[in-house]
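Table S2 (continued). Query chain:
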Amino acid sequence: MIRVAFFRKEGRIVGFESEGHAGYADSGYDIVCAAVSALLITCVNGLESVVSIEPTVRQNDEVGYLKAELPDRLDEAQLHDAAIVLSVTEQGLQAIAQQYPGFLRVSTKNRR
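Corresponding output:
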């Protein structure tokens, strides 16, 4: 199962952490894993190329791990735009989790 946790601070999404493999099908044929990977990588790329933010990113492909967090000092426009990119990603993942509940779990963790 893939577990994705979105981090919220003061009501805004400020990052995510994803770990695991879906196990829906064999490697290379797993549509759940491919969909989750595509959304998360697109999210990171969107933060970088569209919003012009360099998130802190950690990745380990062997264990299916990806973590991305926004930097602490962003202006209101960057926070707004990042929230849109992250919220759309969260919505897409929740839709996948509804269709494939045994293979993806999406949660929220509050940060201080």
